[in-house]
């Protein structure tokens, strides 16, 4: 709410500068968006009087005006406004003036005629289109006739007033009014605000009870009251009232509508004014709309209502959407003479839903949603009637028409000093706490320990002990609360096994040269379903915000490919990424997906670039597999890891992909992205892996045990064999291990050759076999014997030719 | 010439030759020539037979002395030449040490991960556990148990990606409070936890909004946990992440799941509190929300609010990273441009 300091000073005598007040409010109550004057950034805007207005000889719309600005000589100013006329008091931007939008006014010539300044419209001095009075939409603003020539226009228009703009949290609807703000600021400074007064004179001859009947559903409107003011003349509001409105960001319309808004700003009670004579019956209903019922609202929109929208209706049809927007048919117009003023409290939830549905978030609906002070409901109505009668020169009819008036019991909350200090960590005294409740004007008694607090209706947000803790804490001041750390029973702070593995896995892949990526977990259904490691239904958003993010991912690779595409499009050729995160698998009819921790990597180009000294470390299948090997090795799994060629992944290269097994459990895959998929993503050759990290966490892990280092030297033997292309390295290694004998410690492939020098369909594989005996020096003959067995087995099983 | 004179001459000439010798081969040649079995000194010593018996030991001793001196000179010259040869070899091996080293592939953690890890480490040190929870949550835990019943106006603050009317992408990490409290055995001591993770809001992505971001939830529940403890803890967080030259300011706020609720601001590091565009001239930057756990939240999680209570806080690593490193567009975190990812390796 935009709070005028001038207005606030009518409630409280505050000897404080607005910036300090803003800071104080922010630390004690609610956020302050800004503290400003409407005149900020503007200067040299003064009252002028048009002494003469002559048409410009070379223009059909410009006028040459002689303007008295309180100087010896009048200023000649060329003005294009249609409403400029002799004898007006106008806003003059003198030469050198700053007006809105950082514009500086200079002496100039307009079509050959000297113009020494500018006559201004309100929009030109910073008034928003939405708040400048409609009457002046098309021209310059005319100031009151008693304005003194040459004096600043800022005080006349309220532009020199300081505005503290508060940004209210949902619980502080009470501060959506000047009264509520004054109570709050009063509590902060320990002062009691002076609430507005008025005198209501029911000088009309009729009784409201004769003029209006009601059928109100009290569940929809716990309070529904009306007064009637008759014989009014519709005209502009006085300037003081207009200033109050535009300083608060509202647009002056006419004396009647302006009063409803002024009272709303004062009390926080939204009001609505109906033209009594336009009602088709004088029986007012508050009811739910019939589904499909139509109403043309004040903004001219014909709205189709739902059966959950509350309406005000006469016998025939709806005349307003309750609390949200009035109907056009019963609008106050220039010929209105009799006003029915509504002061009601509506169901906030229904208001909120209706306002949301129609996107009609008005000052009124917002206040109804956040709560209205029941205690001020009648006051607001009475004050409005008095002011309308005064400004409209009419009479207030007798009494209030009451459709409903459900009493609201004030909340009574008890709290002990011990509890307050226990929760806040303070050592407050009885007097300190009592003082705070007194300043809040909450009637409170205490017995030296227990405070019995009666919470006035204006603070409907308070109903439990904890709410009072907050009142005490914030008014005592968060700055004054000590800083301590929790103490008590010690608790171990340690990562779980799973968390440690996840952390370690990140370090491992970073050490292998991959950068951690965090991609979007919501993607398209098509991408979510790529690279999946099991069957799953997609988990899709009911109302996605964009077509790119509709579905929870079921793989990590597609996100990494998006990332690579982003990089490649920006000329980054070498991209190495990994991501650790969850995939979302959903089985059949299950509503909630299973969330499984995965880890995936994707590399295109080289891990390290070519330098003067080294070739580029360009990643191919074996490069990415090496990273997976390292990763799985360091997972310390009990069961052996092996790779099997697979064509089961539609998005992977059918000849360059392996499923990865731990024991006989499939835990992931590694390989090259299918070139067609790569082309869909607009990326070059890319190698990827994805692992079910949760499975690796859950798999049995070896206990670390020291293995004594053999005191006896190893013996190695190399063997090269020529085998059919179809024989795999894994087959060969498995056989060597099987037949290697007790002392075979290691088998390392050191050469693969396929080429022109070999018979067609053959390849050469070369291995180093390492033999080790921990107990004794190996005897040459024993090694030879073991080695010969391997050779024989290779010849027999694979028809291998030993080279 | 007398034997002694001959020896003296051999000695002098030998030393001169050794000195002139410029290669190991030449020195070896000299050694063989001078000291070998057929060399002049050996020859000369054969002539001792012709020397008188009393002169013989003197000349013999003189000859040995000359031989030793020549041997030493040869050895010394050998060392000199070897040293020179090594020096010459090393000189020929000189490199341009300013040429760049061979690159080693090394990846970086994501900047948001850095922030989360830093927070985890700090809280682990204070005896907190790290817990996680589902990203696809039910309405019950995400909202109801956080004291946000259906139709609560504060639900508007959190535009939600629903999957079904009851299932949604979690809008905050707060449901992990409820889950942790439900699971905790308070007879075994206090509950102290943090819970980092991804959260989702129904937002259009732009420089300051992202439909996916991160939160770190914190919760301490015990028999006597105070607002002062919350303040001290938040000050620790600020000092740990941003440095201790910054002030922390708490101010009232509103969250349905805490009462009292506060927001914490720290001194704007762009202007050090003087007021600038970054802090909208306030001198302060909002960094997190917190408060004392609302009794309804405790009650719904089965915790007796008359005995137990505590504080909760929620902070945004994305926002922290943006503030700490001056990142001006939140989308940078999720597009994974390598030129962005590889920037974050410095210690400060």
Automatic annotation (TrEMBL), chain A:
Keyword match Isomerase: no
Cofactor: Mg(2+)
CDD domains: PheRS_beta_core (cd00769), tRNA_bind_bactPheRS (cd02796)
Binding locations of Mg(2+): 461, 467, 470-471
InterPro entries associated with the record: aa-tRNA-synth_II/BPL/LPL (IPR045864), B3/B4_tRNA-bd (IPR005146), DNA-bd_dom_put_sf (IPR009061), Fdx_antiC-bd (IPR005121), Fdx_antiC-bd_sf (IPR036690), NA-bd_OB-fold (IPR012340), Phe-tRNA-ligase_IIc_bsu (IPR045060), Phe-tRNA-ligase_IIc_bsu_bact (IPR004532)
PROSITE patterns: B5, FDX_ACB, TRBD
Cofactor annotation remark: Binds 2 magnesium ions per tetramer.
EC number: 6.1.1.20
Gene Ontology CC terms, in alphabetical order: phenylalanine-tRNA ligase complex
Listed transmembrane segments: none
Swiss-Prot/TrEMBL catalytic activity: tRNA(Phe) + L-phenylalanine + ATP = L-phenylalanyl-tRNA(Phe) + AMP + diphosphate + H(+)
HAMAP family reported for this sequence: Phe_tRNA_synth_beta1
Subunit structure: Tetramer of two alpha and two beta subunits.
Protein name in the entry: Phenylalanine--tRNA ligase beta subunit
Gene this protein is translated from: pheT
Automatic annotation (TrEMBL), chain B:
Protein name as annotated: Phenylalanine--tRNA ligase alpha subunit
Domain Aminoacyl-transfer RNA synthetases class-II family profile: 111-343
Cofactor annotation remark: Binds 2 magnesium ions per tetramer.
HAMAP family for the chain: Phe_tRNA_synth_alpha1
Alphabetical list of PROSITE patterns matching this protein: AA_TRNA_LIGASE_II
GO-annotated molecular function: ATP binding; catalytic activity, acting on a protein; magnesium ion binding; phenylalanine-tRNA ligase activity; transferase activity; tRNA binding
Binding residue positions for Mg(2+): 259
Catalytic reaction list: tRNA(Phe) + L-phenylalanine + ATP = L-phenylalanyl-tRNA(Phe) + AMP + diphosphate + H(+)
Enzyme class: ligase
